[in-house]
Prior knowledge:
The protein is α/β, with parallel strands linked by helices and 584 residues long. The protein has helices at 2-21, 27-34, 43-46, 49-56, 72-86, 109-123, 125-137, 147-159, 177-185, 200-207, 224-237, 239-242, 248-259, 263-273, 279-287, 293-302, 309-321, 328-335, 432-438, 453-473, 486-494, 498-512, 517-528, 530-539, 559-565, 569-577, and strands spanning 61-65, 92-98, 163-169, 191-196, 215-217, 326-327, 365-377, 401-406, 418-429. The termini are far apart. Pfam families: NPHP3_N (PF24883). This is NACHT domain-containing protein.
Amino acid sequence: MVETSRQAAEHTIDSRIRNWLRPADASINYVTASGLCHPGTGAWFLKSPVYKKFLQAPHGRLWLRGIPGSGKTVLASTIIKELRCADEGSESAIIYFFFSFSDDSKQRLEHLVRSLIFQLSGLHKAGRARLTNHFEKHNDRYEQPPTESLVELLDQMICDLRSVTIVLDALDESNGTQSILQWITSRNRCKFLLTGRPERDIEEALTQWLPSNCAITLENEPVDDDIKAYVHHKLGTEKNLSRWKSMHNLISDTLVEKAGGMFRWVYCQLEELSGCLDKPAVRLMLQTLPLDLNNSYDRILQNIPRSRVPNAIKLLQFLAFSNRPMSLRELVDAIATDPNSSILFDVEDRLAPPDTIIGYCSSLVRLTGQTVDYKQAGSASASALLYASSIGPAPASEAGSELHIKAGSDAKSDAESETEYGYEPQLELAHFSVKEYLLLHRNETPYQEYFQIPTANATIASTCLAYLWTLQKLHLTKLMDATHGMEKHEIRTKFPLTDFATRHWLDHARLAGENQEKLFFWTSKIFVDKPFMEFWLQFYNPALGWGLRLLYAKVTTPALYYASLGGLDRSIRLLLDRGAYIDA
């Protein structure tokens, strides 16, 4: 009984520490990448002299650089698995982090350090003790430590062990790369294995730090065997590909020859081949393969059925330009909303089941193990403000309702301070190269005009406002009085785009500008129609910050203030022309 009570107390402390530290869960990326591995993947590297030298060096350093889609992340997961299998020492540790362009909680030095700290605390008692002590020093989770303090804590935890190997994937997808590179190159008590594109700032920082012959360019290495194994696996397991058995060798040989070391390119071609109805079509595709990834994406967009094009474009606009990652149900409601129609939003227009939304452009998007978690928080945390609107004052010390990225569906919240709304699967662009492609502004890109910054942001802002207008007109405002406070949660549950729309429409309107008449129609409507503006502000008020609430009182701040806050010039002029008092 005593032992059970002690274990329960330790579990409670661990939960509170995790809720305070808010480490990004890199294991999701690891598991996803490992699922793409096939027997023998990366064997050429694991047998290479440079890898064996890395294993033997006390403070080994390796950098695997490669072009987009060359399989760096999959190879990183293979190496992590191999390192862990070989690690038998109680005084050693293998820890890792995957930077991600699609997840704002996996891009900065602070995110990296928090994750590595949490991993080490779970592997060794000494590390757990140090983290617990750090937690208690900072006012028992009510105070967040500065990044410098976390870096120092991580260094201490590393010093407790004889050997620590750190694998970092996709350095090029980080934000604040210089601080991350400075942190890496100033550490001398652990091994580093890094992957990323050979971008200039990364090259310059790592060249002097790396020993000679410790930078490997993947496209110059024998990766064809890995690509061939991948192709044969897909040909043998995919229903629409396995039927062409007499052509498997031709397909494999052709794709391997043309791939140029790009797994992502091969994936796109296999997706296209799976849609062929007969052998002549397969032969024609093999004879007219696109030259590179951009040409592959051109073809994918061109082949979207005409009836699906509008929603496919809108989906890509949200995924490439939205302020934060979006859940599957949020995107389903975004697609079901048409700000230019007489029927703005109808629940019967929602896709069912929700994951059929992938069918609009399946090769360009993917569902991930990452989940979006809706919470009503009573206290601030490290990541509580990740996805706040960029417009408005600095966050208050007490967090309001917020969206968090949670690491896996089994993550638990601190019951004392948070109430869960529910976990939502996340949809994202399938690869970093897809976002780069959409932002390139190539004349050859199909529908390129829709992926300009003003146009895409105008679509997002207009969609958000049309959605909110519909909710208001459904008389949901009657649920907002003081005696029905829980109904606000109910609205967010039944209408999942509410949180994103209320927090971020003003951000996207600012980025779009009001030169587009369709957007100005909606921005002017919310500033002129006082009940509409009140409905918005009851969910989120950018003027008050995070810890404060209107408590359902009538709005006293004039519309001119919010139009000015968003830098919306046409709305400002409209309000002044209508007699708005500039000194209110």
